[in-house]
Amino acid sequence: MTVENNKGVKQNPTEKELLGYIPRNSRGIYEINGTEFARFFIPIDDSWRDPINQGTRERQFSNPNINFLSQSKPEVIKYMNMVKQVANDQNKNPENLRDVFEYCEPLGKVYKLLAQEALEKVGDSAIVYAPDNGGKYVKWILEQVLKDKKVNWQLFQYRMSRQQVDCGPYGKRLGVGTIFYDYLVMMRSFRNQVLFDDCIATNVSLEGTYQIIEDELGEGIHNCNFNIFTSVANVSTLDGLASDISRRGVKNIHATSGIPNYRLNEHGYLMEENGDYTVSDMGLWTKDFMEISEQLKKALF
């Protein structure tokens, strides 16, 4: 990032220095023009390309806190390949409900398996974070799986989106815009903190969610168990996120991804080596899923 070095403003401000420039509202949340922001991470002109991934493959990956569901349930690979096929078909359109069904059905099968895996790993009590927009479909799947279970799983309702923000002397940054529909205080009632995401490409959304939890729980976060579940994750991003949470004092952190990914494009989308999208824009593809919810229930449940 390049900014004018006037009045002591640094060329490359740290996150702490940047946040000191942004005002907080009455709730203590950073706010710009009425939109709440959790954190800011990178200059907008920085590339999302991930050079760390070159040559990395699942068989070489050895983080004990991360596993891929496809290793125990190989059908996940088939389902995600079906999602990829729709996402890269030029004749398919997220405005067409028939195409939306073809995208959501195999993705729903993956999240049904992930939800069952989460129940087995986490237990009877948990708070779940799956930010809208992409998280709406994830939460719908979770609701179907949890419907007849005698468990205390609270699905926290909030929205997150990556937004470009003019930060004055610090230039344009990529921020996490957040809208809360539930009270933050409910986070304190659960030791098991479960983060579901439609996919993990960059770490902006999950890192923002973690920071919100840390701000609310304070030192109490060190006694929590963190579990992350997603359909597909960039290996380097997920490894860095899990390692960072562990370094910040959380003793129990585990992540489960349906399949691994090894490449991001310059816009932060998951890509295959041949240039295909792994899942494309999942929020866009799943935004109309409620229009076909009855057909999905018959196919998935």
How are the secondary structure elements laid out?
Elements: H1 15-21, E1 30-32, E2 35-43, E3 66-68, H2 75-87, H3 97-122, E4 125-129, H4 135-146, E5 152-156, E6 158-166, E7 172-180, E8 192-197, H5 204-217, E9 225-234, H6 235-247, E10 252-261, H7 282-286, H8 293-300
Parallel strand pairs: 3-10, 4-5, 4-8, 8-9, 9-10
Antiparallel strand pairs: 1-2, 2-7, 6-7
Description:
It is a single chain. The protein is an alpha/beta fold. The chain has a single domain, classed as Rossmann fold (3-Layer(aba) Sandwich). It has eight helices and ten strands. The chain has a six-stranded parallel beta sheet, with helices on both faces. A four-stranded antiparallel beta sheet has the order 1-2-7-6. Helix 6 links the parallel strand 9 and strand 10. Helix 3 crosses helix 4 and helix 3 crosses helix 8. It is globular and about 50 Å long.
Which descriptors apply to this entry?
301 residues, alpha/beta, Rossmann fold, 23% strand, globular, disordered N terminus
Low-confidence stretches: 1-10, 44-56
User: How many extended strands?
Assistant: 10
Order of strands, widest sheet: 3-10-9-8-4-5
**CATH architecture heading:** 3-Layer(aba) Sandwich
Shape call: globular
- Rg for CA atoms: 19 Å
CATH class: Alpha Beta
Distance between the termini: 49 Å
How many strands, what sense, and barrel or not for the largest sheet?
6 strands, parallel
Q: Strand percentage, roughly?
A: 15-25%
